[in-house]
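Work package 3, deliverable 3.1, input record:
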Amino acid sequence: MVAEGRLWHTSPVPDTSLTTTDQSHTSTTGAPDVAAPSGLPHQWWRHAVIYQVYVRSFADSNGDGEGDLPGITARLPYLAELGVDALWLTPFYPSPLADGGYDVADYRDVDPRYGTLGDFDALVERAHRLGLRVVVDIVPNHTSSAHRWFQQALAAGPGSAERARYVFRDGQGPDGSAPPSDWHAVFGGSAWERTPDGQWYLHLFDPSQPDLDWGNSEVHEDFLATLRFWLDRGVDGFRIDVAHGLAKDLSEPLRSVAEDGEHLLSAIGGHNHPYWDRDEVHEIYREWRRVLDAYSPPRMACGEAWVHSPARRALYVRPDELHQAFNFDFLQASWTAESMRAAIVESLAASAQVGASTTWVLSNHDVMREATRYALPPGTDDVPWLRAEGAPPIDLELGTRRARAAALLMLALPGSAYVYQGEELGLPEVVDLPEDALQDPVWERSGHRERGRDGCRVPIPWSTEGPSYGFGTGGSWLPQPASWGGLSVAAQAASAGSCLALYREALGLRRRFGGDGELHWLAGFDPETTLAFRRETGLTCVVNFGPAPLVLPAGEVLLASDELAGGALPPDTAVWLAG
Ligand code: NOJ
């Protein structure tokens, strides 16, 4: 059973065409990147492994219980040794933290709790010296209500130029006391909030995150300035928050979304929803691409676009737009050969149509960690269910086994992989955080029905003991479970069969066998229970989703996600072979 209105879930609808009203555009850049053979240094993202650092939870250098930039800098050698190519930093900008920093009050500074601009420069410099690229998050759909623009808008009143940067409207009904439309917020409730003077403003997320109006040229100019600000400081790329939400159909009367029901993050039909995945959004990314291409070497951008099909996602990575878009179909695929194969085949086909490389994502700071997710009964994946009265205990050992196999599958695929901090440690979701510790706005906005995403944001354990398992010298802003010591970096670094050891070995081998080489499915395996493919680079990957051991194909075993039983591949296990 799937909980109604649960977060970050869309229903992918197979759609193999690139049907859109926006096909006529020709490249303004001459598309040099896509036409060129892969492997050129400036196309590093095409097969990079990018490690997501959730800044508040990675490493705390000053003992205040929250992670910070100097903490990350000190841990960069760990990432270099792990073997990733880049890190993506979640927002570290000044923010009231109503939504974990995705409520930005100033786009061109560092929140004092995370450090200073000088700390940021030091981080970039150290990362580059270690051969790691740095990607930062940009949040263009909405600002924080604490942003100076929004404060000016409230003060200036209806009809002002200050309000025109956001989406203000009069309400419906004789006294305007009903919201301007039935649009709903992702975090629950109406997407409209009333101001003291009676007007309403739009917020597709929390009321503290007012949506910007991308029909306003001032908004465009300001974000171009923000991009340049960070590019000039040396960043290698951007992750774009809610990339599919910026363009809105604000023509009057505002259209109803009644028929879209619980599909909160994307439109079912995909093409003409009033605010999700509208074709006009692509013009913004063409504008941004021109800025990215003006740097030498050109910089990259990856969009967070929750769209309804791989084909719609591919539109974001056309040659003159973004370089990458997160592949959430892979993340949402269930643990079956059929579901995983469909996500892989459709994603590769859609990306190939536009000459882009594919991304692969198993987890991030918004979804349940995969060690827990893969242990749930089919069709069930929400934390409220786990805490429901009478819910059967989940088999974490099974989930972890599958998560390890999924890692080898992901890292064997052509394209780029995103690894969320703690994934390499096999951390489970923390499902029993005390209610008074919960900070995700979802908890309050859902009337305490949805616990939200804090369970995947619990600070990283670095050592086997200590007040916050080495996260810092003090406590930690979310309580860590007692099992964290055994899952810590220190514990796993010392253990040959650990999840950390598996990731390290896999990432090392990927440097030899990765790259852009095509994937060929191998014949002779039962498609219901097995994924088996060979990369042109010489790597063969076989994953057993079935209940019985499989006979291994010929070839030298390079790595297995768990112990092999003689010449057989046990259930829920993946293997890499050479040849
Ligand atoms: C997507 C981010 O990943 C999520 O954490 C945030 O709450 C929303 N966008 C709103 O910015």
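Residues 99-100, 102, 139, 205, 241-242, 304, 365-366 surround 1-deoxynojirimycin (CB under 6 Å).
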